């Protein structure tokens, strides 16, 4: 459930009419709903209320400072994957002890910054990384808390570009080698082994792959404890999917996911950590765009929008489906018309949808892409020298710009022309 509903024939973000925001900031822009962010965080928090736990928001899905602040105030920790994300989490007021550092290629500088600024744990993904972290921690005279990410070789049954838990993926260490690698870690004086980490992929629409992975983690916990390791925390990653296409069967709910975690791992008396991104931020955001032209092509009509692949890359990159709805609610019974919905960027790939049925639209109309709060703004670029678009946060009947649209001058001024030119 989200908070983007039609009221009196106009799409609202919570209590704010979307056209009101469009008039203030100009299209295209992203809008996020505070109530939806809070609600989705709480669904996970409640689903794990049966035991000690921390929900760490995967901020790669949406790292705007205001979004992070909303979630931090609700009690969320953060899952970060770069020095930049770590700095953003700290700047939003998240304490180091609630920040988990994931990612396959952490640099020594990033490790040092996190150890100095405070960190809950590093999710270590390889032996060379373990060696580097041990050295950095020792040079600072501290011990780095770590979980080791194991690759359970499970098929997440999702898009190949976002599956991470198969042995051919670059992530984690093979679970079969875990015993050996944990022994190496335990022998390193700069490391403090606190648990096990696993993440098998994103936009999972079934629980079965999670079950297979978590059963393997349960078994591994027993094996490692028998070897003398104190496994007190299990980080289970993120990945629960959202219903992009409302006509499809809805993916499992957080409460069902929480019950599965309890069933597979609840008996181990471990603190549970999860790293959901998309399910918290995805349906908390929409991308609003204006129709520039309706072009009648040969055998098909194009809706040319002012948003493009540089603003929302998911359709071009993953063939992702996003619901696109008119901001003015169509009259009941109005005949739908098939459109190819495209952006102005000079690539054929700049296509959001083909032959999508929409009510008849005209230049100047606004449309909204649903489920755009995750992996939307964060994956945008200035391709075709299109400045990054604004982000707006709504809370009840108030709204605020939480990232403004740069001027052309601001965009250009980041380049410098060397003195010899
Ligand atoms: N933890 C780790 C270690 C991850 O790699 C990811 C996502 C998450 C948590 C959060 O997963 P989520 O709950 O959001 O599914 N750009 C792609 C998605 C990439 C996901 C990468 N890792 C997309 O737009 O679909």
Automatic annotation (TrEMBL):
GO BP field: lysine biosynthetic process via diaminopimelate
InterPro entries attached to this UniProt entry: Ala_racemase/Decarboxylase_C (IPR009006), DAP_deCOOHase_LysA (IPR002986), De-COase2_C (IPR022643), De-COase2_N (IPR022644), De-COase2_pyr-phos_BS (IPR022653), Orn/DAP/Arg_de-COase (IPR000183), PLP-binding_barrel (IPR029066)
The protein's annotated pathway: Amino-acid biosynthesis; L-lysine biosynthesis via DAP pathway; L-lysine from DL-2,6-diaminopimelate: step 1/1
Active site, UniProt feature: 346
Cofactor(s), by name: pyridoxal 5'-phosphate
Known EC number: 4.1.1.20
Top-level enzyme category: lyase
Function: Specifically catalyzes the decarboxylation of meso-diaminopimelate (meso-DAP) to L-lysine.
Protein name: Diaminopimelate decarboxylase
Organism expressing this protein natively: Pseudoruegeria aquimaris
